[in-house]
Specification:
By secondary structure, the chain is an alpha/beta fold. It is built from twelve helices and twelve strands. It has two domains: about 210 residues, Isopropylmalate Dehydrogenase; about 140 residues, Isopropylmalate Dehydrogenase (3-Layer(aba) Sandwich). Helix content is about 40%, strand content about 20%. Helix 1 links the parallel strand 1 and strand 2. Helix 10 packs antiparallel against helix 11 and helix 11 packs across helix 12. Bound molecules: nicotinamide-adenine-dinucleotide. The site of nicotinamide-adenine-dinucleotide has 21 residues, from helix 4.
């Protein structure tokens, strides 16, 4: 089967690390029965320079006929003086998320055993590595709920947001959490604030109902304030962490910081079932968790691993190629285990740093 993948490298280090991900993908899928047709288009600042728009029509049309978007990152000092609504991130990533109804954000927070020193946590807490999957709902909650307004004057002036969830929004993300847990260690923590918020009582009820279809998965409910403490205190208790939008926004950043290495973290945003893609090949946008790293862009030293891992997530979630995704992940693990590092991963005591291209070649050798 042949599928189109829209490759939107973007700005800064995006165009440097994207070819690494494509090279790894081409090597891995050569042995599978799927064919990927990589088609490139402009996005972000590069697209503004060329066409005046951060998300040109042509790019959107390409994405629409694709099964997935492999995204680099967008933005940089050159475009920071533009009005906020025209800035690369706001004017390309957000419209893409909206257009494709991306409802779930998956952010693996990984600490490789050989990189445990990079974590700000006490060594005994992360010894042997860490592997947590934060699953954040993206369409509901207080960010989009109506009414959202300001009113009144003087001491009575007030501002209002509405925390609201629809049943279908909770159901689809909960099913994804349990399905993801089946590929991992069969454990889900569902995060809420059911002791105070009506919408979160509802969240807990619906998660519990859906759990009846997934009796093989262990489910634990946890209040968000406790979860934020437990992530620091005993991170190894977590595997899949299912979060409403706002709590996921906060906890996913907390989890990424405890790994200590932004150049190693990928993320996936998946489309709502039936909106784009098919049940067999759900649409997704796959990208590194970090930004365009303007301080090192153009030097050939960026860590390509986050981009390569985002390609592995694409194989797992859109193309259901679990073995191929694992192959990429274990090649990266092996490369790190052999002591190969880009500059961002070197410890205080130094060592030899590899360029973007050199570490990619090591990963390819280890595939
Ligand atoms: P950043 O993630 O780009 O950089 C933060 C630090 O991490 C820098 O020191 C950088 O060198 C380092 N870093 C990040 N990725 C790395 C990699 N792969 N290899 C080695 N080092 C890496 O965050 P920032 O500096 O806050 O943002 C820079 C630009 O990126 C801004 O314009 C911002 O708007 C944009 N941004 C875009 C996205 C996106 O496209 N999704 C996300 C975040 C930031």
């Amino acid at each position: 089967m042949k599928h189109t993948v829209a490759v939107l490298a973007g700005d800064g280090i995006g165009p440097e690390v994207m070819p690494c991900a494509i090279e790894v993908l081409e090597k891995v899928i050569a042995q599978s029965d799927i064919q990927l047709d990589f088609q490139h288009a402009l996005v972000g600042g590069a697209a503004i320079d060329e066409t005046g728009k951060a998300l040109p029509e042509e790019t959107l049309r390409l994405a629409e006929k694709s099964s997935a978007i492999l995204f680099g990152s967008v933005g940089g000092p050159k475009w920071e003086s533009l009005p906020p609504a025209e800035q690369p991130e706001r004017a390309s990533l957000l419209p893409l998320r909206k257009h494709f109804q991306l409802f779930a954000n998956l952010r693996p927070a990984l600490i490789y055993p050989d990189l445990a020193d990079a974590s700000p946590l006490r060594p005994d807490l992360v010894e042997g590595g860490l592997d947590i999957l934060i699953l954040r709902e993206l369409t509901g909650d207080v960010y989009f709920g109506e009414p959202k307004l300001r009113r009144g004057t003087g001491a009575e002036e007030e501002a209002l947001d509405t925390m609201i969830y629809k049943r279908y929004e909770i159901e689809r993300i909960t099913r994804l959490a349990f399905e993801s847990a089946r590929l991992r260690s069969k454990k889900v923590h569902s995060i809420d604030k059911a002791n105070v918020l009506t919408s979160m009582v509802f969240w807990r009820e619906v998660v519990t109902e859906i759990h009846k279809d997934y009796k093989d998965i262990e489910l634990q409910h946890m209040y968000v304030d406790n979860a934020s403490m437990q992530l620091i205190k005993w991170p190894k208790q977590f595997d899949v962490v299912l979060c409403p939008n706002m709590f996921g926004d906060i906890l996913s950043d907390e989890a990424s910081q405890i790994t200590g290495s932004i150049g190693m973290l990928a993320s996936a945003s998946l489309g709502a079932p039936g909106s784009w893609g098919s049940n067999e090949h759900p649409f997704g946008l796959y990208e590194p968790a970090g930004g365009t790293a303007p301080d090192i862009a153009g030097k050939g030293i960026a860590n390509p691993i986050a981009q390569i891992l985002s390609a592995a997530l694409m194989l797992r979630y859109t193309f259901k190629l679990e073995n191929e995704a694992k192959k990429i992940e274990s090649a990266i693990r092996k490369t790190i285990g052999q002591g190969h590092r880009t500059g961002d991963l070197l410890q205080k005591d130094g060592g030899k740093s590899l360029s973007t291209k050199e570490i990619t070649q090591k990963i390819i050798e280890n595939l």
